[in-house]
């Protein structure tokens, strides 16, 4: 046993007891002490008994679980302890322990050789392990040297380089992110600078970059922010687009369009642009009208802001109407000009895009589609925008009753609207039906009131007219009146005089449209300041109001005779006095006559009165209105014709109406003139105005369009023989009418161009039946003077005292011829007196002389027809008297041939006719009265024919006279 222990000690092994101590608690049995082992050895060894003792051990002692033997045994103790039993039980346990210990010792001894062998192997293994540890230590030391010398030096460099590259990339990303984070600041700056394409380009690039770095958490928020920014840019771009509607700027619009192209929203931009233009028109007109309404309303509490535009227009005052209209048109012009320039921009842009060959066919197709869409949209927008403009202006025009406007103000309104319509025609080729209809309504309404007032005014003028000359210059022409200035303007009244002058000097200017003229600056609705200055006229004679002897001095001319035409020098005396012209008049004689009193007349100076001038001015105003507003041309021309009708009727009523016309047999009033006068009386003259019996309402309505017949001023005296029964006034009145008719004739072609084709027959009829009859009034008017200027009754009485049944041929004419010629000389002198005050034109003096001579000749025939008895010698005396009369008369007048000369000669010669010839004479010469023809039959043929033949001739005379009755 001692040998085993020593061996174990040498091998560094524990003794079995020590080994037992290392066993688990289950195996950790109490090792018997030396004494116990000794006892065990001393006891007899019975394997069977030993086995029984081991078997008697409780099974629980062999459990692998942690088992507390002490606790187990203590728990087994009975409640009442007995020493003897306890000792016995203790001895039993000891025996069991001894049996186990012995069994263990036996087993150990039994395995001793294997144990020793295994222990040797363990020792060898331990030696090998120690050698392996030395090898590992050396290997570790060598690896450490390799690590320091190669791995850390080389691979460390590579690792650092890789880390550096990663960090560089990271730094770049960080810088990009930093830039992206600061992009909003730059975007704001670019938007302030209105660099919309740059801002969008930047934003799109940022979005692209953001999608690249979307793996960073900070970028995800930035992406949504950039999208918001892009939307914000689009909003600002829309605002920028709206600004081009009022003030188009090429660079600004180019930026905006480029920006929309970058966004790929060219078509959307065009849709938005049209919406903005519509909005701009609405906002512009509303603000303009609102400004004027609020300005004129003062501190009124009315909330004009909330009113509809149409209602707002009704609050415009008359004073602010024209300025507001002008500003309205100016503002609308700016919008239309912007649209025009927008279209121009696109046209030029299209040319630039289509000229170079596109590289990318797909992109080209897309751009072609865009261009086509834009072009169609812009063309369609022209009419839409003009329609909006028309509707806005129409609402403004119809919002105010213009019937009480002053004429000049109304003309300004028409002028502005005319210019606007011209703008519309140039803008989109529109005829502006909406504007035409609205201004036509206002114009017809205004013009009816205006014309009614003018007719009443004309009646007042005529009733207060004293028919004195209006002192105008000899070269007076209606074109000198500012009312007719518009006729010199080739385009329209909208062209200012200054621009008109420019257009005359440079023909190219004439062809420019308003959009070309005012493309860069200016406004066609600017009122020209120089217009008022040009309205001054220089038509009155310079000395017209400087002398008390107005009538005497107004036509005097102290210039040299170099400006007097030769034909006027020759006919001068005839025209003024009716004297026989001198066949050879020296220059000195003419000059001396010019220095004398009434011969210092301008032979070509027009004769007109203030009323005539007023009518001419009215015609000019009417034509102005008509020129500007073609749709009411017929209404205006109709009213123009009424002005002339009324003037003609007044002159006829004042100076020409006389019941003795018919009895004179001279046919003074032609059927055409009579028809005209009847028409005027029926259509224009209110015959019931004096009677106060207009009770029927419908009649009152008709009378609205009529004017009461005028009355001659009490200052005009037509019964004084000293003034040749108001000849001066008659000449002024009649010749002013003729002058007026001449002016109408000169305007016919202009009126004809303005008249609608369907209504042209009215104009032609007016000229052929009314204007052309003006000169025909000379006959009835001057006939009254001629009828009273010479005492024809006295001549009849003197002829009645002459004895005609003489038997010898006389060589001396009768006294009545001298008396008659003296009357003519006196008439000639009076005519000369009148001509000192009023120029008597040649046609007038001719008419006067013709009437006087006709009346004298008819008085002669009447005197011869009163003869009861007459011989052949008496008829010869009649011829002698008439020849004497003719000879002396031809010296007094230049009128050739002498009127009604044949009338007297034929009657005297009829005395010598036979019965058959007389019958034929009666049928052919119906100009003689029944009494005159009967006298021929009774007195002349009485002695040559029988009673039956005389009765037959008298019956023939009666047959001729019957239809007249």
Characterization of this structure:
The protein is mainly alpha-helical and 965 residues long. Helix content is 68%, strand content 0%. The chain is built from 39 helices and two strands. It has a two-stranded parallel sheet with strand order 1-2. Helix 28 links the parallel strand 1 and strand 2 (707-708). The protein is rod-shaped, with a radius of gyration of 68 Å. Residues 13-29, 358-362, 490-510, 529-534, 543-602 and 692-698 have low confidence and may be disordered.
Helical run tally: 39
Question: Roughly what fraction of the amino acids lie in strands?
Answer: under 5%
What does the radius of gyration come to?
68 Å
**C-alpha geometry:** rod-shaped
Please count the beta strands (DSSP E, at least 2 residues each). 2
**What is the mean predicted local confidence, pLDDT?**
77
| Major β-sheet profile | 2 strands, parallel
What is the strand arrangement across the widest sheet?
1-2
Keywords:
965 residues, 68% helix, 0% strand, rod-shaped
Please outline what is shown here.
The chain is mainly alpha-helical.
Topology:
Elements: H1 2-10, H2 16-21, H3 34-42, H4 47-55, H5 69-76, H6 83-110, H7 112-192, H8 196-212, H9 217-243, H10 250-263, H11 266-297, H12 309-313, H13 318-354, H14 361-398, H15 407-428, H16 433-464, H17 497-505, H18 507-511, H19 514-517, H20 531-534, H21 550-553, H22 566-577, H23 587-595, H24 610-628, H25 633-656, H26 661-664, H27 671-683, E1 685-686, H28 697-704, E2 707-708, H29 727-754, H30 760-769, H31 778-789, H32 792-800, H33 815-837, H34 842-865, H35 872-892, H36 901-909, H37 915-924, H38 930-940, H39 947-961
Parallel strand pairs: 1-2
